[in-house]
From TrEMBL:
Organism annotation: Cystobacter fuscus
This protein's name: GntR family transcriptional regulator
């Protein structure tokens, strides 16, 4: 699970759904692997609590980027990078609105290090991805990430 910034859409798992997932893990005697890979890059509001920190006996295996650095260097680096990446994101969104109007709709993300662009109705995302690649721009078509099948009895939706 990446509850702080799901890839590819960049959405966060709500507090209610986080607790439901933890209850499911407890009932099912299952473990949740929490990959907190870029929660440090939250541009709006306070950082979100990790799954493993929500309850004292959470059935969560937690991993986070540089989670064992204790001297404060990483924290300072993240603060500098958060500001830089927020500025870059704002510039990218502004330029996309100016230069790509009608071709793609791009909105700022509250968290993460990627953005999702929305194509006009009827435009195939794989075709758009191939055209971008021919111009030297790597974009992943959203359809490549769609869920193929639901797992019966899986975590709450």
């Amino acid at each position: 699970m990446t509850p702080s910034s799901q890839f590819p859409l960049g959405v966060t798992l709500s507090h209610r759904r986080r607790l439901a997932l933890l209850r499911w893990a407890e009932r099912s005697n299952a473990w949740v692997f929490e990959d907190d890979y870029d929660s440090e890059y939250r541009y709006v509001g306070r950082p979100l609590a990790s799954l493993q920190g929500l309850t004292p006996d959470a059935r969560v295996i937690y991993t986070g980027t540089f989670s064992f650095i204790t001297e404060g260097h990483f924290g300072r680096h993240v603060r500098r990078m958060r500001t830089l990446y927020a500025e870059r994101q704002a510039l990218l969104v502004e330029e996309a609105r100016r230069e790509l109007a009608g071709l793609i709709e791009l909105h700022p993300a509250d968290t993460g290090m990627h953005l999702t662009g929305w194509l006009p109705p009827g435009m195939d995302d794989r075709t758009a991805s191939a055209r971008a690649a021919s111009a030297g721009i790597h974009v992943s078509p959203l359809s490549a990430f769609r869920e193929v099948a639901l797992v019966r009895g899986g975590p709450p939706h």
